Amino acid sequence: MRLPDIWTGLGFALLGIFVILQAQGFPEPAGAASPRLFPRIIGCGFVLFGLMIAGRSLAARMQGAEVRLLPPVEDWMRSSKRLTRIVFVPLSIVLYGLLAPVLGSLPVSVVLVFVSALLWDERPVAAAIVAVCVCLVVTLFFMEVMRVPLPTGPFPGSLF
After folding, report:
1. Where would you find the membrane-spanning parts of this chain (predicted)?
2. What's the pTM value of the predicted model, to 2 decimals?
3. pLDDT tens track for 137-147
């Protein structure tokens, strides 16, 4: 599936605006290039090129070229299982961001990996074993090797 250029361009422009606004909260030390600089440059590039893509598409439409505003419905889009798999990826990212600080990183990631495995037709017992093992290894790697403090939620100790 390919989105029409007007929507892709506007999406990139909005993403660029979001990045620029988020960079506003970064610290700005005096007399040096600040952590704001690089995200602002990238965000401005996203806005500029996104608007160029959307504008080109809009100009072509105004000149009479057949420019679609809606993507065509393809065969794979008629499968609810495939659409569920696609929607689950960004949904799981949002759910992790919302639930991990409250419930803990490890329990949330185990549930999300388990549900993902089930969506891909894995057997429940195998999905549970893989979810627990993979999430435990990844959590330990991030916490012990990379020294990244993951959210523990209501559970005491550093494992969760």
Report:
1. 41-59, 86-119, 125-143
2. 0.61
3. 999 998 888 88
Taking only the tens place, the pLDDT of each residue in 4-24 is 888 899 999 999 999 999 988
Residue in 126, 68, 119 with CA at minimum distance from that of residue 91 = 119
Whole-angstrom distance, CA of residue 95 vs CA of residue 37: 30
